[in-house]
Automatic annotation (TrEMBL):
InterPro entries: NEMP_fam. It is found in: Nucleus inner membrane. GO terms for cellular component: nuclear inner membrane. This is NEMP1 protein. Belongs to the NEMP family. It is a multi-pass membrane protein. Pfam families: NEMP (PF10225). Its main location: nucleus. PANTHER family: AT07567P-RELATED (PTHR13598). It comes from the Eukaryota. Keywords: Membrane, Nucleus, Signal, Transmembrane, Transmembrane helix.
Length: 128
């Protein structure tokens, strides 16, 4: 009885693979799919479980995550501090060229040409 069921299962699988082959327009793609299906069906379960164990990713707990985040932040800030301080000690400006140019273009130390005192006087005398 078992042999009959196995023959029926293999026959149904063969019909399914025939449908896969005839159902696509690219024979190379069909054969690739069939080959992958046959290989996948014949991989031992022990091998699949062994690969799953090897690829299992360990997740961090909330406490480990916070500890790692604090350590990485501290390390990155220390590296940044050393980098910036080293540039400043070597004589570099603490401002970039773009910041200096932007400041120079926005701030003007020239006073207006007209005398605003006369305007203020005329305003005061007209209100009294």
């Amino acid at each position: 009885m078992r042999e009959v069921l196995d023959l029926m299962k293999w026959g149904i699988q063969l019909i399914g693979l025939t449908f896969v082959y005839n159902g696509t327009q690219l024979p190379a793609a069909s054969l690739t799919l069939i080959l992958l299906a046959v290989l996948w069906a014949n991989i031992p379960e022990r091998l699949v479980q062994a690969v799953k164990v090897l690829l299992k990713i360990r997740r961090l707990t909330q406490e480990e995550y916070e500890q790692q985040a604090a350590e990485e932040t501290r390390r990155a800030l220390e590296q940044l501090r050393q980098f910036l301080f080293a540039k400043f000690v070597e004589g570099d400006s603490h401002l970039s060229e773009d910041e200096v140019c932007a400041y120079d273009s926005e701030v003007s130390f020239e006073f207006p040409a007209e005398d605003s005192f006369e305007e203020d006087e005329s305003f005061v005398t007209s209100n009294t």
